[in-house]
């Protein structure tokens, strides 16, 4: 009887342990891709698994294209960014895109990359939102900085277009029309994209 009791207890313990590793479902669980990150002296909070819609979670998908691996294709209508991989695959990320009147399409290249960038609001934004004038000289990097943990600067014809692919502390805005034209990603996702994308890579915005 004692042996049977021990076996039952062991079985229950194993079940509890496996439940604790679940990456979807319960509100207390987190996807491995969106766990807490200690990066550059900042701690990016974990995001609960059920708080990101499945279609906006980072994932590898089939994506046949004639574009070479390393190219970034942005589907603004469906709020997806694709990083092209070999063999007809792509890493897909959920994104937030420009509001009405701020969306744009076209080709660009990654001109430079930055970790925990400072943010300087464009002059046109300062005119629209004068309350941001306190940041006219720049906002220091940090968890509340609108550019988040990383920024990829988009260049066109060798010049800064003023558009970025960047992280955001407002991860819940992914999947919406929210920005002034920049493409925003969850901080954990922009770190992943930053580590894959190279300066000079082609970016196609549709």
Primary descriptors:
single chain, 206 residues, alpha+beta, L,D-transpeptidase catalytic domain-like, nine-stranded mixed beta sheet, two-stranded antiparallel ribbon, 3 helices, 17% helix, globular, disordered N terminus
Question: What percent of the residues sit in helical stretches (DSSP H or I)?
Answer: 10-25%
Q: What would CATH call the class?
A: Mainly Beta
What's the gyration radius in Å?
Answer: 20 Å
* First-residue to last-residue Cα separation: 68 Å
User: Helix tally?
Assistant: 3
Mean pLDDT: 84
Enter the CATH topology name: L,D-transpeptidase catalytic domain-like
What is the ordering of alpha helices and beta strands?
HEEEEEEEEHEEEEHE
Quick one: biggest sheet? Answer: 9 strands, mixed
Task: Let me know the CATH homologous superfamily.
Answer: L,D-transpeptidase catalytic domain-like
Shape: globular
Quote the beta fraction.
25-35%
Organism: Bartonella choladocola
Keywords: Cell shape, Cell wall biogenesis/degradation, Glycosyltransferase, Hydrolase, Lipoprotein, Peptidoglycan synthesis, Signal, Transferase
Active site: 166, 182
Pfam families: YkuD (PF03734)
């Amino acid at each position: 009887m004692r042996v049977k009791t021990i076996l039952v207890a062991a079985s229950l313990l194993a079940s509890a342990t496996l439940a604790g590793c679940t990456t979807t479902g319960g509100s207390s669980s987190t996807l491995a891709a969106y766990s807490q990150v200690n990066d550059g002296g900042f701690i990016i909070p974990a995001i609960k698994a059920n708080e990101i819609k499945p279609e906006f979670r980072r994932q590898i998908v089939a994506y046949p294209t004639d574009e070479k691996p390393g190219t970034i294709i942005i589907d603004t209508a469906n709020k997806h960014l694709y990083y092209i991989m070999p063999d007809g695959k792509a890493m897909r990320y959920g994104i937030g895109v420009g509001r009405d009147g701020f969306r744009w399409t076209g080709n660009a290249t990654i001109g430079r990359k930055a970790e925990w960038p400072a943010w300087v609001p464009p002059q046109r934004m300062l005119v629209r939102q004068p309350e941001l004038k306190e940041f006219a000289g720049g906002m220091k990097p940090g968890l509340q900085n609108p550019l988040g943990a990383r920024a990829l600067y988009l260049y066109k014809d060798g010049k800064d277009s003023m558009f970025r692919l960047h992280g955001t502390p407002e991860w819940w805005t992914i999947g919406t029309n929210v920005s002034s034209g920049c493409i925003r990603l969850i901080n954990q996702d922009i770190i992943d994209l930053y580590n894959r994308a190279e300066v000079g890579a082609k970016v196609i915005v549709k």
